[in-house]
Amino acid sequence: MILYFSGTGNSLYVAKDIATAQKEEIISISKEMNLNKEVYDYNLKDDEKIIFIFPIYAWAPPKMVLDFISKLKLNNYKGNYISAVATCGKNIGNTMELLNEKLNKNGLNLDSGFSVVMPTNYIILGDVFTREKNNEIIEASKPVLKNINKIISNLEKGKFNVEKGNMPKVLTSVINPLFNKFAIGTKKFYVTGDCIGCKICEKVCNNNCIKVDKTPVWGESCSQCLACINYCPKTAIQYGKGTVKKGRYTNSYIKSEEMYR
């Protein structure tokens, strides 16, 4: 079972690669969470693996991923192998420790964890790379994914091949809560006159907080995945003044329709 969250395709790209190698089913965490269930329960097969795949937002998993895990119930769990893969621009802080802490509260244990560097989409703080650079990064991820699949296939425990960065505890336990409190609002999103009302932003929103009536209107719930900005075919969606002259990024291996929620 591959449980994934993806904003602009990087984590879905990784999820598809690992699902193929492990012969496991892919399940979208955002699609599940938008069902608004009290409990998300799944019946496990005896040898079924559970692999979480998600991007890093301010040195931790997206809040939706952690909320999902708090409501997760794995029926027939008998020490099934659990792993996690975090896609990131550079490093992930204490993400795996935080994830394991959340799993432990449900009687589950994280057996392995990995970080994979992928192209950035967070144009609020920086610009995207060139297409050539993005392709180089994706190509460099392929041998990393091959090694990850080897470790998971062998059910190796205690393997945590991650890049934490400097002061990982501070990054995850201090900066991430500040990000979740102050940086995931929707007030700064707006649309220019270039909008054609195609509704792609509504379809790719992880939180189902965008509704299009000629032009998009944002609700309050947001993950800051920036799918709406990056998938807009007319570059009509902006966030404050900082994104106006910046490029956009979506994973070239993933079709936009695959990102519809």
UniProtKB/TrEMBL annotation:
Keywords: Iron, Iron-sulfur, Metal-binding. It comes from the Bacteria. The keyword Iron-sulfur applies. GO terms for molecular function: iron-sulfur cluster binding; metal ion binding. Pfam families: Flavodoxin_5. Residues 187-215, 220-242 form the 4Fe-4S ferredoxin-type domain. InterPro entries: 4Fe4S_Fe-S-bd, 4Fe4S_Fe_S_CS, EFR1-like, Flavodoxin_dom, Flavoprotein-like_sf. This is NADH-plastoquinone oxidoreductase subunit. It comes from Clostridium puniceum.
